[in-house]
Write a structure and sequence with these properties.
433 residues, mainly alpha, two-stranded antiparallel ribbon, two-stranded antiparallel sheet, 20 helices, 4 strands, 48% helix
Amino acid sequence: MPDDLEKRWVWFVGLAVERFDVWARSLKPKDVLRPLEDTLPPLDVLMVWHSYMLNPRWYAEDSQRILACKPLAELGHAFGKQLARLPSVLDSPPSEARISSFYAQVSRPFDPIDSASVTLSKEIQCPRCRVKLVVPYIKSDGTGYLQSRFRFSCSTDSCPVITKDALCARKLAENLSRQGSAPDSFLPGTFFTESRAAGQKAGKFLISDVTLRYDVAVADSNSDQIVSLQDNPVLKVLQGSSYRLSLKAPDVKVTGASTSNNSHITTAAAIGYNEALCLKILHGANYKMAEIRGQFKRNNLIGRVMSAHSTPMIYSVDLSSAVLRQGDFVQKMTHLEWTKSGFFDAPADEVVLQHAIARYHACIINRFLDLMSSSPASFFVPTLDIDLVWHTHQLMNAQYETDCKRYVGRFIDQCVAIAALPILGWYSGPLSL
């Protein structure tokens, strides 16, 4: 654990994001039926989820586009109906059912401090050969996974050095290699736009710009040809061979270059993307995000697409930066003592919130959102009390989308003026752990 308090907070946020990711991807549709007091995750995980939801357009698009995010969105919708109960649940010691439920899902202690003491590394896959590797979160030379200079060498000698940029490039290459018309076949940033049809069409053009550069055939539902890559599919792809992966045989598995017993390359239907094409894109771009971007033709959605790939995780938001950006807002709330338990319990104090809600309705719905609607390129900053109500409104994502369209005629995102912070960018040098 870093000695410097500021670095320690950034490290803690990074671990919280990791815990949120494991928990969110473990959710099942049936979890929405369980009692709130048994399913509510720890406070650090809630902190990350809250920051994610304060990027409402990305949160809504991920919920619709990514299958693994749907249970999270459904649980959030259920929790949104019970916001009034959250303070009592959070102020009470966690129940045994809540603690055991989280441990069963994440295999880590419920308490984030206890979890931090035993969470020292994570498993990743090499972007090229897909071998599974265990990498430390923190290293004394600043190259741990949660540090800005992360680097790790694959156990396969011919693979490039693994960096965050290479992992993000892998995510982008996979998305460019997806086939079909399912929601996850569309590029993030193009699926939930002001004009859905136009945005999705533009996204498909972006995919075509890149994939047409390579001679890997796209899976054809009318084809019965199945290719077995029993030798080394990675090397064959990089030598320029072309393969047709049939959608008619999702059970065909092809052994890859990975030394992991569980690693394999499947048909496009089984994994949702063309692995051969994915590897060609990566190799052609030297496993660098900037070089993949250079292959796109001019398109007004490129910035959004690249932003969605600023993290290797499945989400379209850099969750660590999202949490850190909320620090200033939380400090202001704390300074006003609005975060103190029971601060608004007295009827006289509750008037402050009632006035804030009234100002939100009058200013946001009638003026502020209207200004944003008429001047989408401009950035408008609400007062602190209005911003608090706006934050709360966004925690009910589905209702927020409905209200935006009803009162303004379009979905309004809460853009952040501050440029996105690099992931744990303060980790620039060796740390004394």
